[in-house]
Amino acid sequence: MLHDPAAERLAPLLSQLENFERSRPDKRLWDLANAKALLAPIGAVPQHGKAVQVGGSKGKGTVCAFLGAFGQAAGLRTGAYLSPHVVTIQERILLDGKPISVDAMETQLRLVLARAGQLGIQATFFEAITVAAVQAFVAARTQLAIYEVGLGGRFDATTAIPVDASILTGVELEHTAVLGSTVSAIAAEKSWIMRPSGVAFTAARGDALAVAENHAKSCGAKLHVLGTDIHLVDASWEGADYRARLVLQDGSERPVFLPDARGFEPQALALAAAAFLHLHPDAHLQLDPAPRPWQLPCRFDIARCSDGMPFVFDGAHTEQSMHAVAAEFRRRWPDRKAVVLFASAVDKRWRQGLSAVLPIADSFVLTELTSAVGEDPQVIAEWLRAQGAKASVVRSIPDALDAVCQQPMPRLCCGSFYLAGEARALLASRAER
What is the model's pTM? Predict the structure, then answer.
């Protein structure tokens, strides 16, 4: 398991919390009651600036990263609450793109636990860290606070936070045991991030968009849709550089230049820019060139091995996100295939995800998760072999990393943020020796 000094320092506090991210229950065991009760006293404190909630099946982190970058480029004090963390728990609460200190996180967690004790509440890990983030942003007097949904939307702790806008990136089949077995059912859960009489933005399509539109209508929210109300037009790529014109919801047009872009970034940029314009209409929205989004670990994170080969680390674990990773890999290395390091949590649709990666894969190395309940790698390997792929099982992540690095070709790690974070840290530590 990846060593995190911050989590080790906070262990006496964290041990008091139920961590459903690790235990992976097969049904919902929480609601908004705890989060609302814990947040109620903070509501008496004057809130500073604007707040936005970001939900969806994929791309949430990238949208948050662009929002943070836009805020910082405009000179706004900006905070972001993200999940899951990849290397250190401090990644969950960022101020101006930097993780808060362990001392600050400890102070906020102690306040949350003390309040929970006074109220007789058994808070979960996610509830406590969510409230700690709100407290940290109030203390820092942020002018833009960004909250990423952990799971779903209707009962996610971030939905207990008052916000000024909501972003639903898109919807696909995921967490079906908890959220529902159809895209429409999952969209119904996620659409609750749209608030009554609020303003929302989405890139959802098909059945998911229909559900989102119905929810917006029922709660009186104004929903702006990418492709209908917001457009990227005249888009072109010059190598890795992206150019387009962004037509925003107010009818204005802005030139966009995003240097060294990933293929999945323009859509995230468009949603973030539209929301930022709504939240801070008088602030400078920098799009030409657009600032690089805040660097979040394991979002098509490219490292170099000692032999010069690229090693891509990505936490993609849904079908669409794996398609996006495969498309970006093919765009950057059109004549190459990858050896893929893969593991999956038990509640993921790993067959559909791996089907997206098969066309760009030379072979697979399957391993076990150490930080969450995972699928048996032998089961995954047998399925891959039935598809005609080369697959081996190396149950230790360090040994699996060795097996991948012995292959003379580009490398890709995906399937889980926990795996990608641990493997990325291991590769970095070896490079430092």
Answer: 0.93
